[in-house]
Structure formats: structure tokens, C-alpha cells
């Protein structure tokens, strides 16, 4: 969550630069346009900014959740998402951009702390907002007095002229220093105590028209939304600037509506100047008639000359600086996209498993290294579990195995001659791991036997004279149990051969022989590494006391 928030706050900076550019263009090119047009454009740009921020946050949050889900999956099912832009990107060769990238990476390393500081500040500002709203409620309910039936009737008549359907209340306040309007559903206009008697009737009507214009335009609600935006993005100068301009244009819009009703600029300007004699209101979340002196002078100048204000020198300088910063940030965020996708596998043998794919996105940072560390830990844990769940089987006595094999050979030799085994057409069979007690002897390539002696007795005698019995496995006797080749199907045999080809152990299947036992893996007479043996043993040896032999010679020496 903190990384999603940090990335969103960081994105708000360059979005703020874009917002500043659009705001500057509105101010420059709408000098002769109405205040309502300028106001609507500024509010629209602020709304687009907020919508863009919301979209970026949910995109970053979705990417973070995706990685969290992937980390909880088995390794072979993980799809790792690595960022291609933002802080995790590969920066250009420029020294300046590399330094900028290092700075962003430094901020990213402290993302949690930065988000915590941001959260504490907005909590403090939220408390300030609540206190401000509470003060408005206090002013509305304390030291208020009726304005009199005459002014209530005047207010009702002005409301009808402005086509306001809601009920608006007029009260005199002993706390408010300037005319303000508070509330949205039940708006109340508060006039400083004594102002009704100190100004002329035309001036009071002008003030009431201005406050009713706020009600008609529903400015109180928009002002609250602005306040929330300023709290969330207190660090973003663009948001603070456009919010200030929106407030100024809001007052200009209300001035235009009030002048349309009163049609008397002199009385209206005199009312503005009279309000300046009162102290400035502290009700920042209410709609006040008179504000700061500079703003008042701009409003008077605009009413007199019918000309909207433009950017001052300081605003132009800041705008140019922001544009330069935006160009730098855009260049720093630009990553090289030479490799769109990278496929990562644990080993060549794991080709049968789904590969881990690294896809470029614009979202999460520092994830690839974290996932690599977690995968390494998982592999180590799996290795330890494998050792605990598959202990080595004790070797049985040597003599019993040799006698069993000799008796089996004698029995088979007395009944049927050993058939000729083709080098490729041999079948895979299942054998027990018990014969592994016989010390392994170097295996030589199989030499096909062309002729056999049909006399079983002479063959047994010859075996006794040479003290060696050699069989090529098609079926085998294991600890007194005869295991037929039907227990092991061709599909599994093909999978084993495919794994050997994919791992690069063999290049072809011609003259292939192998043995997979709980203790070793021998392919074409060569003992293979423990990693490959462990993977094949886990896949295909379903019982700890069995072995798999394919076209494999077993040589036994008798005592």
C-alpha cells in the first residue's frame, strides 16, 4: 500500500506541472473572455487532475496486489511483474539524468517513511479543516439576530430574480466581520452587526445579490472539495495555485451576476470598498464578500475596465521554472525499452514447468530483487524438506542380492533364451532400489547377442565358470517380487527421454540407456549430477524402494 501511495504522490508532481501549463494557457488566452468561462475551465482541469490521480493510484495498487499474489504462489506458477518506468527504470546515459535517477531511487528507498510523514501532515490539516467547519457552525448559531422583515422580503425578491428555489435565511452576526454565506442545504447569509444601518439600500442589495450568486452557483460545495484537494496535495504548488485562481474567478463570476441584477457599478464598487473597512474574516471555508486587499483591487479594476487579469511576473517566472522541471522529470522517467519481455527459468530441465515471465509495466519498484530472494529461500526450504522426507534406504546384505539375481538368471535361462534387444526399441521397466547394494561397475555399450546355446545346462555351466551373469532389463525380479514391464507405460518413458533431451544430457535417443534409482542417475554409463537426479527422482520414483531402468545392463559376480 505504501509503495502505491508513494508512486501516486510522485506522479502527482509531473501531473501538477502539466496542470500548471494548462492553467497558464487558460489565463493567457482568456483575458477577454467571461469569468464564468475561465472558472469552468480551471475547475475542469482540476477535476481531470484528480481523476488522473485516482486512476494512477488504483493502477499502482493493482500492480502491488498482483505481485503479492504471485509471491504466495508456487515458484513454477509465479509471473513476476517488473516496472519499466518510474523509479525502477533504466536511465539514459546522461550524467545529469543518472543523478536524477539516483535521487528518485533514494526517495523510493524511503517510501514508507515519506508516506508516513505525508499522512501525519494531512491528519493535522484535516483537524484544521474540522476546526474551521466547527467555527462556522459556531458563528451560525451564536450571537445572531434577525435582519428584520423588510430585508427578509428584499432577500426573497432577489432570490426569485436569480431563480433560486432553496430557502435562504438572512441574519445579523455579532462575530462575523464581513458578509459571508455558510451552509449548502440550508444556506444562511450573515451580515456584520450594524452594516445594515451603515450602508445605503442599494449597497446592501448589491451585497445580497453577490451572496445569493454563491448559492445559485453552489460554490460552497465546490469550495469544500477544493479544501480537500489542498489538504491531500499540500506539497504540490500547481494544486495550490489553481485553487487560488478558482477562488478569485469564483468571486468574479458572482460580481458579474450581482451587476446583472443591480445594473449599478458605482454602488457595487462602493459596497466592496465599504466592506474593506471591516476586518478580514477568519472563516476560510465560507463564501465571503470582501477578501484580501490585492484581490479587492483586482476586482474593482476588472469591473471598471471590463478586463480580466493575466499572469504577473512572478507567476510567469514560476511557470517557466515548472516547465523546465517538467522536461527534466520527463527525461529522467524515460526508460530504455530495448527488452520488452524477459523469460526466466530455474534450470533447463524445468522446461516442462511454466516459465516465469518478467513483463514491463509502469508501476512497481524494487520487486525483482525481492522475488529473487524469496525464490532462493523457497528452493533452500524445498531441498531441506526433500532430505527429511526421502532418507537413504539401508543397503541389504550383498550375498542375498547376488544369490537372488543368480537364481533368477538360472531360472530364466532354463526356460527361455534371452532375446535379442534392439538398441532403440527396448522398453522401460520398474525395478527396486534394493539391487543398488551391488557396487556399481562401469557400463559399456550394449553388444547385441547374435547366437545362443540352446542347451540350458551348458549355459548355466558357462555362467558358473565365468562367475558373471549379465542381463539386459526387460523384466526383473526384485526382492522375490517379479515386476512386469506393464507397470511402467510408454508415456512415462517418453517423458523421461524428453527431460534428458531438454536438459542437454543426451543429443539423440540412439543406443540410449539409463538408470534412475533413489541414490543415483546413470545415463549411457555416466553418473549424472545430484541436481538432475533429484528432479527426476522426485518426478518419476513414486515409491522409495523402486528404480527405473531403460536398456540397462546388470552385471553380477558370484562368489
Break the fold down into its secondary structure elements and pairings.
Layout: H1 2-29, H2 35-71, E1 81-83, H3 95-109, H4 111-141, E2 144-146, H5 149-161, E3 169-173, E4 180-182, E5 188-192, H6 195-198, H7 201-217, H8 219-232, H9 237-262, H10 265-275, E6 287-288, H11 293-305, H12 313-333, E7 341-344, E8 356-361, H13 368-389, H14 398-415, E9 428-432, H15 456-466, E10 468-472, E11 476-478, E12 481-483, H16 490-502, E13 514-516, E14 521-523, E15 526-527, H17 530-540, E16 546-550, E17 553-557
Parallel strand pairs: 1-8, 3-5
Antiparallel strand pairs: 2-3, 4-5, 4-6, 7-8, 9-16, 10-17, 11-12, 13-14, 13-16, 14-15
Helix pairs in contact: 1-2, 1-4, 1-9, 1-12, 2-9, 3-12, 4-8, 5-7, 7-9, 7-10, 8-9, 9-11, 10-11, 14-15
Descriptive overview:
With 559 residues, the protein is an alpha+beta fold. It has 17 helices and 17 strands. It has helices spanning 2-29, 35-71, 95-109, 111-141, 149-161, 195-198, 201-217, 219-232, 237-262, 265-275, 293-305, 313-333, 368-389, 398-415, 456-466, 490-502, 530-540, and strands at 81-83, 144-146, 169-173, 180-182, 188-192, 287-288, 341-344, 356-361, 428-432, 468-472, 476-478, 481-483, 514-516, 521-523, 526-527, 546-550, 553-557. The longest helix has 37 residues, at 35-71. The relative contact order is 0.10.
Amino acid at each position: 500500500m505504501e509503495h502505491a501511495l508513494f508512486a501516486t504522490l510522485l506522479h502527482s508532481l509531473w501531473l501538477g506541472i502539466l496542470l500548471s501549463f494548462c492553467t497558464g494557457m487558460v489565463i493567457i488566452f482568456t483575458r477577454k473572455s467571461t469569468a464564468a468561462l475561465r472558472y469552468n475551465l480551471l475547475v475542469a482541469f482540476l477535476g481531470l487532475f484528480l481523476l488522473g490521480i485516482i486512476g494512477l493510484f488504483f493502477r499502482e495498487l493493482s500492480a502491488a496486489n498482483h505481485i503479492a499474489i504471485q509471491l504466495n504462489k508456487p515458484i513454477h506458477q509465479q509471473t513476476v511483474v517488473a516496472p519499466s518506468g518510474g523509479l525502477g527504470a533504466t536511465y539514459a546515459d546522461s550524467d545529469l539524468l543518472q543523478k536524477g535517477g539516483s535521487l528518485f531511487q533514494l526517495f523510493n528507498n524511503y517510501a514508507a517513511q515519506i508516506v508516513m510523514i505525508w499522512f501525519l501532515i494531512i491528519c493535522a490539516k484535516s483537524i484544521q479543516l474540522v476546526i474551521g467547519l466547527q467555527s462556522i457552525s459556531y458563528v451560525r448559531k451564536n450571537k445572531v439576530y434577525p435582519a428584520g422583515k423588510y430585508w427578509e422580503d428584499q432577500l426573497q425578491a432577489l432570490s426569485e430574480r436569480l431563480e433560486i428555489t432553496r430557502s435562504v435565511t438572512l441574519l445579523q452576526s455579532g462575530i462575523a466581520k464581513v458578509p459571508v454565506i455558510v451552509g449548502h442545504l440550508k444556506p444562511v447569509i450573515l451580515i456584520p452587526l450594524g452594516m445594515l444601518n451603515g450602508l445605503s439600500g442599494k449597497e446592501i442589495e448589491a451585497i445580497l445579490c453577490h451572496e445569493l450568486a454563491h448559492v445559485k452557483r453552489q460554490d460552497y460545495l465546490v469550495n469544500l472539495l477544493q479544501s480537500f484537494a489542498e489538504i491531500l496535495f499540500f506539497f504540490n504548488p500547481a494544486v495550490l495555485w489553481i485553487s487560488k485562481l478558482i477562488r478569485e474567478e469564483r468571486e468574479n463570476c458572482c460580481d458579474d451576476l450581482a451587476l446583472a441584477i443591480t445594473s449599478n457599478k458605482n454602488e457595487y464598487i462602493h459596497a466592496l470598498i465599504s466592506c474593506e473597512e471591516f476586518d478580514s474574516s477568519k472563516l476560510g471555508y465560507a463564501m465571503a464578500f470582501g477578501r484580501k486587499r490585492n484581490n479587492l483591487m483586482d476586482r474593482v479594476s476588472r469591473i471598471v475596465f471590463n478586463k480580466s487579469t493575466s499572469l504577473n511576473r512572478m507567476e510567469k517566472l514560476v511557470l517557466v521554472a515548472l516547465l523546465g522541471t517538467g522536461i527534466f522529470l520527463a527525461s529522467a522517467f524515460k526508460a530504455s525499452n530495448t527488452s520488452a519481455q524477459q523469460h526466466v527459468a530455474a534450470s533447463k530441465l524445468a522446461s516442462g514447468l511454466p516459465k516465469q515471465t518478467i513483463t514491463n509495466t509502469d508501476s512497481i519498484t524494487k520487486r525483482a530483487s525481492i522475488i529473487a530472494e524469496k525464490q532462493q529461500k523457497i528452493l533452500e526450504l524445498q531441498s531441506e524438506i526433500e532430505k527429511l522426507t526421502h532418507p537413504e534406504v539401508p543397503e541389504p546384505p550383498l550375498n542375498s542380492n547376488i544369490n537372488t539375481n543368480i537364481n533368477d538368471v538360472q531360472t530364466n535361462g532354463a526356460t527361455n533364451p534371452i532375446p535379442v534387444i534392439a538398441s532403440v526399441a527396448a522398453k522401460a521397466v520398474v525395478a527396486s532400489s534394493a539391487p543398488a547394494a551391488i557396487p556399481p561397475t562401469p557400463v559399456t555399450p550394449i553388444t547385441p547377442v547374435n547366437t545362443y546355446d540352446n542347451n540350458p545346462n551348458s549355459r548355466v555351466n558357462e555362467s558358473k565358470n565365468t562367475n558373471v551373469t549379465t542381463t539386459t532389463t526387460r523384466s526383473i525380479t526384485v526382492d522375490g517380487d517379479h515386476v512386469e514391464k506393464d507397470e511402467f507405460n510408454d508415456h512415462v518413458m517418453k517423458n523421461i527421454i524428453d527431460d534428458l533431451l531438454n536438459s542437454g544430457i543426451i543429443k539423440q535417443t540412439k543406443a540410449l540407456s539409463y538408470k534412475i534409482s533413489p541414490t543415483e542417475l546413470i545415463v549411457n554409463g555416466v553418473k549424472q549430477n545430484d541436481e538432475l537426479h533429484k528432479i527426476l527422482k522426485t518426478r518419476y520414483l513414486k515409491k522409495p524402494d523402486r528404480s527405473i531402468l531403460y536398456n540397462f545392463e546388470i552385471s553380477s559376480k558370484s562368489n
